[in-house]
Every structure is written in structure tokens, then in C-alpha cells.
Amino acid sequence: MRLGVIDVGSNTVHLLVVDAHPGAHPLPDYSHSVTLRLAEHLTPEGAISPEGAATLARFVTDCTEVAESRGVAELMGFATSAIREAGNTEDVLAQVASSSGVDLHVLPGDDEARVTFLAARRWFGWSAGRILLIDIGGGSLEMAVGLDEEPDVAVSLPLGAGRLTRDLRGDPPDTARLRELRRRIRSEIAGVQPSLARVGAPQLAVGTSKTIRSLARVCGAAPRAEGPYVPRTLDRSDLAELVPRLAGMTAAERASLPGVSVARAPQLLAGALVVEAALDLLGIESLSICPWALREGLILRFLDGLPDD
Q1: Max Cα separation, the chain?
Q2: Closest alpha carbon to 78 in 101, 122, 112, 52
Q3: CA-to-CA distance for 248 and 241, rounded, in angstroms?
Q4: I need a surface site. Which of 52, 76, 87, 292 has the fewest CB within 10 A?
């Protein structure tokens, strides 16, 4: 069957269309995304502004039209940190449903980590052993570790690349603010490090998300054009050299780096600080990059729930 997933994140509204059935590898058919940056549409009280809600509803409606044109039989909609933390979540969801017919399901942070972990487990297989997952979105950082398809520990922290970028000033950023942000990131990750370490050392550390893929590309990983099956890694030593370089660059200069889009460039430094801190504090030397993440995990979870023929 042809399935579609609309993922409303802090940065983008993304539609993924795949051909899939239980027990099979989901085959991508079409991908459609639009940049929204919901966090920029927040009122001082923390609610999504009327303009932001209207734009979101329009973008989701556009996704439904694309899905219909691609012959999607089942369309699912999910939202992550920007929606779940808004002061007017229910009103925004109602407006989206009224305009588009899509009932967005708001994922709790730990569930977001679990679903993404499922995608990584299926991609790398049982031979990978215990997996540690690190996933950075625009609004939050998800981490999970475990031997099975359901992780033993799953956590979510408010350390998304977009969220943290708003705390920096200047282009390049102010040194004092950068130092304070680095301290705060490490303090938050250190708070959950014991729970992640308690279940045992991972045999494989996995990174997902556009930010981590971009960092890996800057550090020399194969370009996207070479396909999803080419092994890609992000090494802690390379990242340690990259972070000071990024800190001294303007957003425009970062956009000239390989694999970095103009839209992603302003957030790349904050994302790099989070990944570097996670690798340092968790004692990880290298991340294996997984091309599957939340959207694929949602599709796999849906397929797992279908009744047997």
C-alpha cells in the first residue's frame, strides 16, 4: 500500500510517501517539504500566533493535496516539540484539522525517541547489538539506547538546534553567549547520562537528522547523491576541529560548506555543540549515520500494527 506521513517539526513540514507492506522494506516514492520555523511564530506568551497557525494549516493542506496526487491510501500526521510545547496546542490542532482534514497526533518527546530508535534498529539490524541513538531536531534532542526494537531508555531534552540558535547573538555569535550555551548544553546532557549508561555500553552509536547528516558531510562523509547505502560516519575528533571553525563563521559562510543549505546554516553551530557534548559525555568516538529517522519509524510502527492476513 502507498502510505504518507506528514511530520510537523520545529523547522519544516515534511511529507514522506512510501510504498510499503508488513515485512517489507519501505520504498520511498516522493518527498515534499516546506520551511516553516514554527518557533519564529510564537507570541511572548508562548502560543503560536494566528499567522503561524494559518500558515501551518495551509502547508498541511498542501501536503494532503500532494499525497492525494501521489495516490496515498493512508495518510498520517504527527507533530513534535514546537506544537506540543505551545500554549494553544489544541486550538492549533483544531484549525489544522478544519482546514486540511488531518488530525495531527502530538508525539511526546520520549515517544519520538522510541520511534526513531525503531527506525535505526530496523536499518542496522540485530547484528548491530546494543544501539545508542542521537537525534537532533529543531526544538529537541532525543536519545535512546537498547538491545531490542523498544529501547531500554528513551529521553528528550529541550536542546534542538533551532531553539538553541535563538539564544545566540551576533553573526558570528558572541563568545560569552557561546560559552554559556555550551555550559548549559553539557549540564542538561550530563543530567541524563547516568540513565543512558546504566543499561550498558553500546556496540553501535547512531546519529539521525538533517543536522547530523550535514555535520558528517562537512567532515568528509559521502554526498547524498551517492545513495543511502554508502556507510557514513561522524567522528568526535573531526567534530572537535569543526566546532571552532563554525563558531568563527557567519551563517552565509557556513552555507558555502558542502552539504549545508542556506536554511540549515544558521543552526549548524548549535547543532554541532549538542552533538559534540553528547559524544564527549557519553564516551562515543564515532556516530554511524542512519538515513532513516522519525518518519520511517512512524511508518514501520503503523505497519507493525496491521492485522495479519
Answers
A1: 61
A2: 112
A3: 12
A4: 87
